[in-house]
Write a structure and sequence with these properties.
Structural class: mainly alpha
Largest sheet: none
Number of helices: 3
Distance between the termini: 26 Å
Shape: elongated
Order of helices and strands: HHH
Strand content: under 5%
Length: 83
């Protein structure tokens, strides 16, 4: 795994750890504020997982349908707002 993929994976792992800690705090304290905060962490985990999947797929080699890599300069040519 290259650095970008490792970082995306770490984002997922941290999201899971935060969810566990928040839910454990809710279970211990019974706080009504911690429960929805823990449930929001599920959405954060899902978005981190989607980002991990996108980064992992984009890190792969070119294939027959996509013979060239998409680099930042080519993205900027297609959509200047992406820069």
């Amino acid at each position: 795994m290259d650095g970008t993929v490792r970082l995306a994976f770490a984002h997922v792992a941290v999201g899971i750890a935060v969810f566990i800690l928040k839910y454990a705090a809710y279970a211990v304290t019974g706080s009504a504020a911690l429960y929805p905060d823990a449930m929001e962490s599920i959405v954060n985990i899902a978005s981190a997982a989607a980002a991990f999947l996108a980064v992992r797929i984009s890190a792969g080699p070119p294939d027959a349908n996509h013979p060239t890599d998409i680099t930042r300069p080519s993205i900027c040519r297609r959509s200047p707002s992406a820069c």
